[in-house]
Amino acid sequence: MKCPTCGTENDPNAAFCDQCGASLARPTPPPASAKPAGDVTPPPFPPPPERIGIPLAPCRLEIGGKTLTVPLKKEAVIGRAESTGTWKPDVDLGPFGGKSDAGVSRKHAKIVWQGGWMIEDLNSTNGTYLRGQRLPPNQRTLLNNGDALLIGKVEVKFLAQ
């Protein structure tokens, strides 16, 4: 299914665009027996207000006083690259002390844009912590500007732009 807002091709069963978060709901036409109620008939299932016109927003991670810009995409995997170089996450914590001995998994967590940034632990061995609380695996949680994260043993500050 093609997104009416940005033109991205999406899964036919998707409710929202993977790229921009726009609603992919198609209004159903009224039955032939229905009488028009005026000049403009709103679609029966409008997109949720939090999805309307909210473009993908940039964000950064601050680690040990250094700032790392997260790639501008709907989902970005956070972890560490393999030593052989075959796997590289979107956000590699390796250069920031995020090695295996620091408890960072190769595919540790991901941040996801859903009209706001969310974080999801990818069932990592050592967990992802938000504001001191361990996140349940595979469950998205809203991020706020300035939130403190602990990815394995690596302290990360989330910065929305």
Please mark out the parts with pLDDT under 50 across 5 or more consecutive residues, or reply none: 41-52
What is the annotated CATH architecture of the largest domain?
Sandwich
**Domain count:** 2
Shape: globular
Number of helices: 0
CATH topology grouping of the largest domain: Tumour Suppressor Smad4
Give, in order, the helices and strands. EEEEEEEEEEE
What is the number of beta strands? 11
Main sheet: which strands, in order across? 2-1-11-10-7-8
Task: Evaluate the radius of gyration.
Answer: 20 Å
Name the beta content range.
Answer: 25-35%
Set out the fold topology.
Elements lengths: L58 E5 L2 E4 L5 E5 L11 E2 L16 E5 L3 E5 L6 E3 L2 E2 L6 E2 L5 E4 L2 E7 L1
Parallel strand pairs: 3-4
Antiparallel strand pairs: 1-2, 1-11, 3-5, 5-6, 6-9, 7-8, 7-10, 10-11
What do you see in this structure?
The protein is mainly beta and 161 residues long. It has two domains: 1-55, no CATH class; 59-160, Sandwich (Tumour Suppressor Smad4). Helices cover 0% and strands 27% of the residues. The protein has no helices and eleven strands. It has strands spanning 59-63, 66-69, 75-79, 91-92, 109-113, 117-121, 128-130, 133-134, 141-142, 148-151, 154-160. The strands form two sheets. The chain has a six-stranded antiparallel β-sheet, with no helix packed on it. It starts with 58 loop residues before the first strand and ends with a strand. Residues 41-52 have low confidence and may be disordered.
